[in-house]
Amino acid sequence: MDPNSTFTLKIRLFGNKKKMREGYKYGFFELVIDSDLSNYKDLVGEIVEKRPPGYLEVAHC
Length: 61
Hints:
By secondary structure, this protein is α+β, with helices and mostly antiparallel strands. Helix content is 18%, strand content 23%. Strands 1-2 form a two-stranded antiparallel sheet.
């Protein structure tokens, strides 16, 4: 990875607290991205791998 095109993203996931799944914590996590090699769909895919959606939840992309 090239240090000039590498970024650390601090991502905050949030949702409706009334509809929140039990045992699931919304919050912050960091993701290191190389802007030369990634695109938006890959970024969304990495986030969904870390925090998979539950039943009737949709990952918007």
